[in-house]
Design goal:
The chain has 116 residues and is mainly alpha-helical. The protein folds into two domains: 74 residues, no CATH class; 35 residues, no CATH class. Helix content is 50%, strand content 7%. The protein contains four helices and two strands. It has a two-stranded antiparallel sheet.
Length: 116
Amino acid sequence: MQNSNWALETTFERLMKCHQVTSNANHDERTRQLNAAERKMLNNFKRYAYAVFKHLPNDNELEEWLALMQHYEVSTRLLDWTYSFYVALFLRLNTWILTMTPTTRPVQFGRSKVML
């Protein structure tokens, strides 16, 4: 059930909580751990991006790299938002469908979708 008291969290923050990276750390240690994890993810993404993409941001353009990572569904500290109700609905339903088990996921048959 949704709760209006929930804090806004990025996918990166949720990922770190899931892996308990910051569970028993004070603020400075948690910040250090998050920065190290983000730097590792960024470096891994850059390594593969140079082999795949033709046009890439400069190395010093962190925000551009994070936006590119987020576009390709890598967890980042950027928060998704939109003004459009329909875009928000699509993104929420898409996430919900992807988290369903294969036996309850909608399957495309011709033009109609059915639940298995």
